[in-house]
Design a protein that fits this description.
- InterPro entries: Acyl_CoA_acyltransferase (IPR016181), GNAT_dom (IPR000182).
- This protein has 244 residues and is α+β, with helices and mostly antiparallel strands.
- The chain contains 6 helices and 12 strands.
- The strands form 2 sheets. The protein has a 7-stranded mixed beta sheet, sandwiched between helices. It has a 5-stranded antiparallel beta sheet with strand order 3-2-1-4-5.
- Strand 11 and strand 12 form a beta hairpin.
- The relative contact order is 0.11.
Length: 244
């Protein structure tokens, strides 16, 4: 039990049937979700279809249900300790802001193309930032360590922008170990594990014209899809890698 919440498994998700008349404009669609707990007791939850999609819910998943009977989130998070076969991986927290700042501030080229320059306050914001409709359980802000040394940081959102996709919002290496194959090793191990977790596609963006970012991601099998605009108005290249 988690803060008064109980664990259930999704038995079935029934989508709405609007019949021949269809749905009125602006009318929200609701799915009916049948849940079962360890005692075999079942319950029915109605949830807006868009929220079901945002949470990445599917039949067979374990979920947390609050005291009000509503689904609060998925139980299962990916085991980040398996994201690298060579380096130690753990979640980064407020206690790591100093180490994150020291790693980030040396990557001047990144901030030339993607201002503003890093601050400790911006790091605190990044640690909790989420795309619209996503939940904290979908966010993995992690560090890759060799001993006590932070080699790389990554901000990854699961089941975004669609189910079975992962989105890397940030991947940044310690400047002193760049061009040594470490970043490629991390990305390869990560993609292998994500595929085992059912992720089929990994997406990310780089700022158009940034030669370092484009070279690295193309080398690691990320193919451009299209150019688009970032929230700050920059032209960025959206790219993806299909996982086997």
């Amino acid at each position: 039990m988690k803060d008064g919440q109980k664990q259930y498994r999704i038995l079935r998700i029934d989508e709405p049937d609007f019949g021949c008349e269809g749905r009125d404009d602006g009318e929200a669609a609701y799915d009916e979700i049948t849940l079962v707990n360890e005692q075999g007791e079942t319950c029915l939850v109605r949830m807006e279809e868009q929220q079901v999609w945002n949470m990445g819910l599917d039949e067979g998943m374990l979920v947390w249900v609050g005291k009000d009977g509503q689904i609060r989130g998925r139980c299962k998070r990916m085991d980040i300790s398996r994201w690298s076969e060579k380096y130690q991986v753990r979640a980064l927290t407020e206690q790591d802001v100093g180490a994150i700042y020291e790693l980030s501030r040396k990557n001047n080229l990144y901030y030339e193309y993607c201002p503003p320059y890093v601050t400790r306050d911006s790091i605190l914001s990044d640690l909790v930032a989420l795309p619209p409709g996503k939940l904290p359980d979908d966010k993995y802000y992690v560090g890759f360590f060799r001993g006590e040394t932070l080699l790389a940081q990554m901000d990854l959102i699961a089941d975004y922008p669609e189910r079975a996709m992962a989105y890397i919002g940030l991947f940044m290496m310690e400047a002193s170990v760049q061009q040594a194959g470490i970043g490629t090793r991390i990305v390869e191990d990560l993609c292998r594990h994500l595929a085992e977790e059912g992720i089929r596609t990994v997406r990310l963006c780089w700022v158009k014209g940034n030669p370092q970012a484009e070279h690295f991601w193309r080398k690691n099998q990320f193919a451009p899809i299209r150019e688009t605009q970032s929230m700050s108005g920059q032209t960025v290249v959206l790219a993806e890698r299909r996982l086997k």
